[in-house]
Structure formats: C-alpha cells, structure tokens
Amino acid sequence: MDLITTATSTDEAARAASVAVLPVGSFEQHGAHLPLLTDTIVACAIAKEVAERYGLFLLPPVTISCSHEHAAWPGTVSISATTLAAVITDIASSLRESGIDRLAVINGHGGNYALANVVQEANVAGPRMTLFPARADWDDARVAAGLHSTAYQDMHAGELEVSLLLHVAPEVVRDGFQHADHLADDRRHLLTRGMSGYTTSGVIGLPSHAAAAKGKAVLDDLVRSFADHYGLLSSAKA
Fold first, then answer.
1. Considering only CA atoms, which of 167, 162, 172, 149 is closest in space to residue 219?
2. For strand 129-132 and strand 20-24, is the pairing parallel, antiparallel, or unpaired?
3. CA 155 and chain centroid, separation
4. Which of 116, 165, 168, 221 has its Cβ near the most Cβ atoms within 10 Å?
C-alpha cells in the first residue's frame, strides 16, 4: 500500500506544479472489518491518482479530523472543527508562500463539515481551493461502478468503502464484511445521537455487495470527474 508521497524537494522543483492536493481522512471506527484508518486510505488513494493524472503536488494526509459522531467506539480520535479549519488554512498559507496558491482538498470523511466553509471562504476573490469529491462526484462514481446501494443507504463501512479498500489495500480488509449489512434509513437525529443511536456494529450500509472491481471503477470515475475541479483551479488568474 504505497499511498503517501516519497517525492524529494528536487522532484517537486522539477514538477513545478501550480496546484497542490491534500488528502484529509479520519481515525475512526469502521466496524469490525475495516481499519480505523479507512477514510485516510480512501482520501490518499484518490489524491495519489489525481496527482499522477494531472501533475499535482501531492501532500501527506491529515489523518485525524472530526469524528465525534463515532466517539462511542474504542479507537476513534477527533480534533475540533476549529482546529481542522485552522490546519487547512495554515497549509494553504504555507503553500502560497512557496508559490502554490491553489489547493485541492480530497476529503475521505463525510463528517468533516468544516471543510466546506474553509473552501467557501478561500474562493471569495476567485477559485483558489476545491473540495473533492463533491456529492455529485460520488453519486456519478456509484452509477459508473454499478453499486447496488444508494449513497444514503450506504453511509459507513458499507459497499463503497469496502470496495475501494478491496481494490487499493485488500490486506487491511478483514473477513466478516460479507455478513455485516445493516440499514438505518431514518437518521434525522444523527448529529444529536451519534452513530451509536443507529447501529451497534458501527456499520450502516451493505458491505456484502462489495467487490474490488467496483472499487476500481469508483476510483477511475472519480479521477475522470476531477477534471472539472482541476479546470476551475488551473484556469484561475494568478
């Protein structure tokens, strides 16, 4: 699993990228069959593929973020939304000082709501930052890959995430996902009750339908759809 950059300063000087790409994951429970690092692995896999395809400056991941809704399970660690926003803002500021003023934030955790506000604020004077994948990008990738479940049904540790990890890091997927399906379609109080109000296993979704081929198709389609995001950033005036 080679998902973190090993580039040297000389490599990046030769690349001379105008856009950096930052994977943001989490460290939270994903049932008994996926590791705590799942969202970081997903974000890194997407970031690595888009960096290679579009010639971007690949940054190492932010591995701990806003996972407070998973606090009922051992191993979950979070930082505040304020801290996460400050980290992204500081990274963007440091990049500008080194001559790169455009950043693609690759988010692997749906609970990182603060990222949307950071990106909104960064773009007041014009496109300088993008948040990827957007919900529409995930939806398109699900269709392209022929996933059985919908995005709402398959919220956590389900068909999508297991498929992606079976493709990029099969060695970390543990047996048991084939029998771990759990649906909780009425989650209107999720922010109040947390995940433990809707699942005892930590799973909400249909992991039994996962397959490595689906994961590859999802990743391939996300790399394709990133072109629109890259186009907005690369066409912005310096």
1. 167
2. unpaired
3. 13
4. 165
Neighbours of 38 (CB within 10 A): 28
Residue 62 neighbours by CB under 8 Å, 6+ apart = 22, 23, 24, 25, 84, 87, 88
Q: Which tokens hold the place of 118?
A: 């950071």
- 176, 32 Cβ separation under 8 angstroms: yes
Q: Give the 3-state secondary structure percentages of the chain, helix then strand then coil, rounded to 5.
A: 45, 10, 40
Angle between helices 135-145 and 212-234 (to 10 degrees): 140
Cα–Cα distance between 216 and 221 in angstroms, integer? 9
Diameter of the chain by CA atoms?
52
156-183 pLDDT, tens digit per residue, is 999 999 999 999 999 999 999 999 999 9
- Among candidates 138, 134, 105, 113, which has minimal Cα distance to 24? 105
Model confidence pLDDT, tens digit, residues 66-123:
999 999 999 999 999 999 999 999 999 999 999 999 999 999 999 999 999 999 999 9
